[in-house]
Amino acid sequence: MFFVLEFTLFHFFLLFMVGFGYDIHRLAEGESLILGGVEIPSSFGTVAHSDGDVLLHALCDALLGAAGLGDIGEHFPDTDAQYRGISSIELLKRVMTLLGNEGYVLINIDCTLVLERPKILPYKAAMRERIAEACGLPLKRVSLKATTSEKLGFVGSGEGIEAYAACQIEER
Asked: How far is CA 24 from the centre of its chain?
C-alpha cells in the first residue's frame, strides 16, 4: 500500500511543468509604454517591433518554455511584417491557444518588472486583470511585482526595462 501511494504521488508531480521567461527592451523618448496590456502615460516607452510589452513577452516565453514549445521569437518573429505593432495581449492569447491545443492548462503566473520609473503601483491592478482575462485565470492566480535596480546598470540609468515571469502548467 505504501509503495502504491509513493508511486501515485511521484506520478502526480510529473504532470506539472514550470516555465521561466525573461525579456528586456530599450527605452526611448516619444515611444509608448505598454506593460501588462495597459498603456501607461509616460514621455518615454519601449523600442520594439510589436507594442513592446516587455512583461507580456517574458510571460509568453515562460508559457512556451513550460510546454517545450520554443520561444516568442520562433512563433512571432520580428522579421515578419504581420507582427509590426501587434498588441502583446493578442500574442498572449495566441500562446494560450497553442498551449490549449497541446493539451495544457495554466495553473498560475508570477511576474516581476524591473524599472526605475514610472511607478507601477497605480497600474498594477489593471495589469493583473488584463493578464488574468487573457489567460483565463482567476485574479488570485496572477502575481505581479515591480522593483527598481537601485540605479544600477542600464535599467537603473533609465535606458531599459526588464521583466521576469514564471508559470506552472499541467497536462489535461
From this structure: 12
